[in-house]
């Protein structure tokens, strides 16, 4: 693989792997604004970043179980109505490092910042599919298509040198309310190379793995995508399953992400000055479920207070207020006086009253995905 033409990246990113490039921002940088700046948005790649240098000639095909396969160019995409969707993208491997402390897991280590909240711009996939004759709110196409597969330009070793790919159900792809985008803008700017230039999929509320970057083709399929990342990765197994007894076909590919929280204003272990401290972080849930509450404890989880929360503290990229935040995280905050030493804990409740598990052990899984256990940090007052 050729990594000689990678784009420039911000020096403050914490690099988890150089080739392919995988990096996350420092915790405190992550919550310095409601919308994550592109530079500080985590980068999750499985191969070299593709180069598309002639935007006029760039195109992607729509093929598979449809009457008339079609080639679409950026001018076709730019002609469609542009939607602006604020959506949090989260890697299923977010907080994996903490899960591997319980018992070793396979996968790239991530702290708590394999997540970001951006303002994405582009046409809805539902409008693009309508262009090629698939009506809104389809459950199946006349030729039996039930899934929409996204295939990328990039090449990765997990696919034996083939492209990264994933699929979503056609019902979601053709549902305008699901806000699935073919995005060409991120935070009001042209999408950059790391994040999928010139065109990527954004599937709000779903683990990042399904938001395919560098779109090369869309295939309408009867079955879900058979790619590595759908069938042999990004599935949630119980703690009893290990590498000697795993049967991948017993589980569905993970789609929606569960309710998640993390404290970003503090490290795992902190020594602070006497006085008040700020406990600040993010909370988010998948599948269009919002956050109902964030609870914070400074005594390891005995006594809780409810944190204040906000969204949209001045989104700089949109002139009107028509965009919604139903796919976006909330930033929460609590000020607290702490004793000599404290275990600070945060957990959230989503609008379906889903809660987070108290301990990581009960959700341990061999791939180390979806660590949504209560987030705990330790603080000691230094004199
Ligand atoms: N798309 C392609 N083509 N190649 C990839 O490696 N990684 C996926 C997804 N889309 C990936 C991809 C994963 S696992 C995640 S979490 C998100 O992209 C990360 O998107 P970001 O790098 O823009 O943050
Ligand atoms: Mo991911």
TrEMBL record:
A Gene Ontology term for the protein's cellular component: mitochondrion
Biological process, per Gene Ontology: sulfur compound metabolic process
Domain Moybdenum cofactor oxidoreductase dimerisation span(s) in chain numbering: 253-381
Pfam families (UniProt xref): Mo-co_dimer, Oxidored_molyb
Domain of life: Eukaryota
SUPFAM superfamilies: E set domains (SSF81296), Oxidoreductase molybdopterin-binding domain (SSF56524)
First and last residue of the signal peptide: none
Cofactor: Mo-molybdopterin
GO molecular function: heme binding; molybdenum ion binding; molybdopterin cofactor binding; sulfite oxidase activity
EC number: 1.8.3.1
Domain Oxidoreductase molybdopterin-binding: 46-228
Pathway: Sulfur metabolism; Energy metabolism; sulfur metabolism
Entry keyword set: Metal-binding, Molybdenum, Oxidoreductase
PANTHER family: SULFITE OXIDASE, MITOCHONDRIAL, SULFITE REDUCTASE
Official protein name in the record: Sulfite oxidase
Naturally occurring in which organism (per UniProt): Fraxinus pennsylvanica
Phylogenetic lineage: Eukaryota, Viridiplantae, Streptophyta, Embryophyta, Tracheophyta
